[in-house]
Amino acid sequence: MTAFNVVRFQTKVGFEEEFEEQYRKLSREFEGLRRIVLIKTGPQAYCGIGEWDGLEHMIAARPLMIGNLDNFRHTLQELGGDIGVTDAISGEAIYEKAPAKRER
């Protein structure tokens, strides 16, 4: 079943461009990774979303994803509390539906 991971990031002031550049250059050679998207959600605020063939693929890739994070960790600010520099959640999709195809 399809799985997704969602990670919230907040960059330090002045590090937005470096963060975006580093994120684009990361290794994406993870078995089962369908696609990854980085969304800019506000000033210095980003959300990364990964779509996976299954939860087992995402779990297996976690050590590599943490290694990727180490390449740009210095660009991120703490999110507060005990969260650290990333706020990550993940799970299996329980509902999926593609929109109906429109005729042209």
Short description:
This protein is an alpha+beta fold and 104 residues long.
Which series of helices and strands comes N to C? EHEEHE
| Count of individual helical segments | 2
Helix content: 25-40%
Oligomer: single chain
Structural class: alpha+beta
How much β-strand is present in the residues?
25-35%
Largest sheet: 4 strands, antiparallel
The neighbouring-strand order within the major sheet is: 2-3-1-4
The chain-level mean pLDDT equals 92
Give the end-to-end Cα distance, rounded to a whole number of Å. Answer: 32 Å
The tally of beta strands, per DSSP, is 4
Shape: globular
Query: What low-confidence regions span 5 or more consecutive residues with pLDDT below 50?
Result: none
Radius of gyration, CA atoms, in whole angstroms: 15 Å
Would you mind describing this structure in some detail?
By secondary structure, the chain is α+β, with helices and mostly antiparallel strands. It has a domain at 12-81. The protein contains two helices and four strands, in the order E-H-E-E-H-E. It has helices at 16-25, 55-70; strands at 3-10, 33-42, 45-52, 87-92. A four-stranded antiparallel beta sheet has the order 2-3-1-4. The longest helix is centred in the middle third of the chain and has 16 residues, at 55-70. It is globular. The mean pLDDT is 92.
Key phrases:
104 residues, alpha+beta, 4-stranded antiparallel β-sheet, 2 helices, 4 strands
Secondary structure layout plus pairing:
Blueprint: E1 3-10, H1 16-25, E2 33-42, E3 45-52, H2 55-70, E4 87-92
Antiparallel strand pairs: 1-3, 1-4, 2-3
Protein name: DUF718 domain-containing protein
